[in-house]
Amino acid sequence: MYISNTMAVFSQTRSFLNGLVPISIFVSVLVTLLSYFTVDRIVRGYESKIETQNVLIARKNKDLTDSIKYAGYLQNSYLPSRNTMEKLFSESFILLKPREMVSGDFFYVDQFGGPNDKKFMMSRLKKKLLEIYLMPVDRQLELLEETLAQWQGDTFQVDDITVMGVKITPELL
């Protein structure tokens, strides 16, 4: 009797479990689908936010680039071209090394470098100009470029560099 009762309980348990398997599979599939759709909805939400941010960044970048280009046009309007300089002053040069697309400073040298990573400073520039002012302007430009390159070394250019050289002759006066 004990064995038949045990067998009956085992049979009922087995039937119960067999009924649970399809329900378990259904619940598992349902949970998986709900998870997928929830994750998909979350991902689409993030993608939408990222797309919106990318549009804003692109718009800001365009505005900034347009502003920089406009500053370049302004700069070119007050900084004479090489041809204009040569027509007005047969011996002249312009050393223009903007840090970025356009130069914000005018006629000023502010660069770190040298043996102690110090600023080039105006006094160093004046000293160099006094050393080279009697040389032809093309050579002056070469020496200024070499001096700045040696001074800067591997140091990142931190500011704009602009120097304009003009040889004033008696006939210009």
Q: Radius of gyration over alpha carbons?
A: 38 Å
Enumerate how many helices there are, as a single number. 4
Strand order in the sheet with the most strands = 1-5-2
Helical/strand content category: mainly alpha
What's the main sheet like? 3 strands, antiparallel
Helix/strand order = HHEEEEHHE
E-strand count: 5
* Percent of residues in helices: 55-70%
Question: Mean of residue pLDDT?
Answer: 80
Q: Ends: how far apart?
A: 133 Å
- Estimated share of beta-strand residues: 5-15%
* Shape by Cα distribution: rod-shaped
Q: Show unreliable segments.
A: none
Number of domains: 2
Notes on the protein architecture:
Helices cover 65% and strands 10% of the residues. By secondary structure, it is mainly alpha-helical. The radius of gyration is 38 Å and the shape is rod-shaped.
